[in-house]
Amino acid sequence: MDNVHRYFATTVGLVTSHHDGKSDVMACEWTMCVSWNPLKILVMVWNGHLTHEYIKASGEFGVNLCSDQLASQSNLAGSVSGREKNKLDDSLFKDRLSPAKKIKAPLIEGCIVNAECEVEESFVLGSYTGFIGNAVEAKFDDQAKPMFYHQGKYFYLGDQIPKS
């Protein structure tokens, strides 16, 4: 069972949060659409993360699905705790931040999807909390290409596989 989870291929979400005048970002593989209409997005966040604390306190979060141009940002967001460093002050993020329209957490430019979510429901699953957010605002970039994560590495979207 060890490392089986590394064989799942996922997109990478950068989850932004804000509370008490401070913002944070974390890389989150477990970010997924769970309803199209209305648009609802699930993020699974470890209970010890600063992002977890901010989402619980504010009731909102931003979902920013990485394009294939954001590997460095994803790496920083996933390897440093917001308790140790304000990742959004780093030069990798400074020029990519934009204000959200309906939530306080910032959004990250250059993503394939940006969604502003209000927590509609949450549930505990072991040492993680699943936050289901109702997207109150969202946009996408149909020219951007998604980035994938598999076995600790980032990948580009490859050629389409024909249906046989």
Characterize the structure shown.
There is one protein chain. With 164 residues, this protein is mostly beta strands. The protein has three helices and twelve strands; from the N terminus they run E-E-E-E-E-H-E-H-H-E-E-E-E-E-E. Strands 3-2-6-9-10-5-4 form a seven-stranded antiparallel sheet. The chain has a three-stranded antiparallel sheet with strand order 1-11-12, with no helix packed on it. Strand 2 (13-19) and strand 3 form a beta hairpin.
Strand order of the largest sheet: 3-2-6-9-10-5-4
Any idea what the radius of gyration is?
A: 15 Å
Distance between the termini: 34 Å
Spans of at least 5 consecutive residues with low confidence: none
Domain count, please report it.
1
CATH C-level name: Mainly Beta
Could you give the order of the helices and strands? EEEEEHEHHEEEEEE
Principal-axis shape equals globular
CATH superfamily: Electron Transport, Fmn-binding Protein, Chain A
Number of E strands: 12
CATH topology: Pnp Oxidase, Chain A
Helix fraction by DSSP (H/I, runs of at least 4) = 10-25%
Q: Short description, anyone?
A:
The chain is mostly beta strands and 164 residues long. It has helices at residues 50-58, 71-79, 91-94, and strands at 10-11, 13-19, 22-28, 31-35, 40-46, 60-65, 97-98, 107-108, 113-125, 128-140, 147-150, 153-156.
